[in-house]
Amino acid sequence: MLHIKKLDDGIEVFKALGSELRINILKLLLENKEMNMNELATQLGITNGALTSHIKKLEETGLVKVLTEHGGHGNRKVCRVGVDKILCEIITEDTEDAGNIYDTEVSVGHYSNYEVYPTCGLSTEKALVGTVDDPRYFAHPDRINAGILWFTRGYIEYMIPNLLPIATRIDQITLSCEISSEAPGVNNDWPSDISFYLNDVKIGMWTSPGDYGDVKGIFTPEWWFPNWNQYGLLKMIVINKKGTFIDGLKISDVNINQFDLDYKSPIRFKFQIEENARNVGGLTIFGSGFGNYNQDIKVRISYSTIQ
User: Fold this and answer.
1) Mean of the per-residue pLDDT values of the chain
2) From CA 100, how far away is CA 77, in angstroms rounded?
């Protein structure tokens, strides 16, 4: 898989895919598994010399692999598609987020408090932590290494490290994570109202459309059960002086100034499925080694000097 984390890193790939002829090369290779240069040139109706420059471009970006086969009539070059998936991350940032920046990441299993109810469980990349549907295992020492966790209702809370420079205040918090609902088994149509809290204040709610299991998650381990959660949706939550937003859409008027956060303040972020919610459809959080994004809970804090 080709994972492009920044748009600038993918420029050459985008250029390579910007040619109709090179797209046709990839289509032919996908249809035929592998083809030599003569076969490709004949199918495309171009000369071997013209084909060579296009293959070189695709090879440089990793989209195509070129192998040399040794035979009785000399050597020949065989082409194959070099990747099975291309994942490109596009993360937008609020224009206010242009000053001093502090980035940190909290692993999915490194929560500071919880209260969860079945169906529930957690797992590392290698094995389940204890037994599913037994909330006691959320206190197991191995939970620190968890790359995925899920529960039907309740909450999970994380203490976000605050290592800002002295005499600074927090102007904006941006949090990104891969999440979904939690259905018995999987169900792509399983809405769940997921509430977000900052220091015990509800800052907003988002309804997850489903618990996704139609295809395997890109990073989900091979041993993972096929009828269990496979991947989620990457969501970006922003709280600044204008309010709280998810993926750029305002979800509440709760703003960062109400918290008066500075370099000494504790920062606690909670995901909660409330018992009286309209859609009590659970929560799954995907971290490193699971889902489609191979990340834990990323946090970016914008700050300024206290005057």
Assistant:
1) 92
2) 52
Residue 72 is which amino acid? G
Residues 6 or more apart from 10 whose CB is under 8 A from it? 4, 88
How buried is residue 6: exposed, middle or buried, by Cβ count under 10 Å (0-12/13-18/19+)? Answer: exposed
259-278 per-position pLDDT tens digit: 999 999 999 999 999 999 99
Which pLDDT score, from 0 to 100, does residue 91 have?
A: 54
For residue range 192-213, list pLDDT tens digits in order.
999 999 999 999 999 999 999 9
Q: Is 202 helix (H, G, I), strand (E, B) or coil?
A: strand
How far is residue 169 CA from its own chain's centroid? 29
Half-sphere exposure of 16 (CA within 13 A, CB side): 19
State how beta strands 86-88 and 2-4 pair: parallel
**The two structure tokens encoding residue 109:** 């299993």
Give the rounded distance of the alpha carbon of 155 from its chain centre: 21
**Is the separation of the CB atoms in 292 and 231 below 8 Å?**
yes
Question: Global pTM?
Answer: 0.75
Sign of the Cα torsion 16, 178, 122, 102 reads positive
Of the pLDDT bands very low, low, confident and very high (cuts 50, 70, 90), residue 3 is confident
**The tokens 């290779």 sit on which residue?**
29
- 190, 168, 156: which is closest to 272 by C-alpha? 156
From residue 288, give the alpha-carbon distance in Å to each of 72, 96, 108, 280: 48, 29, 8, 26
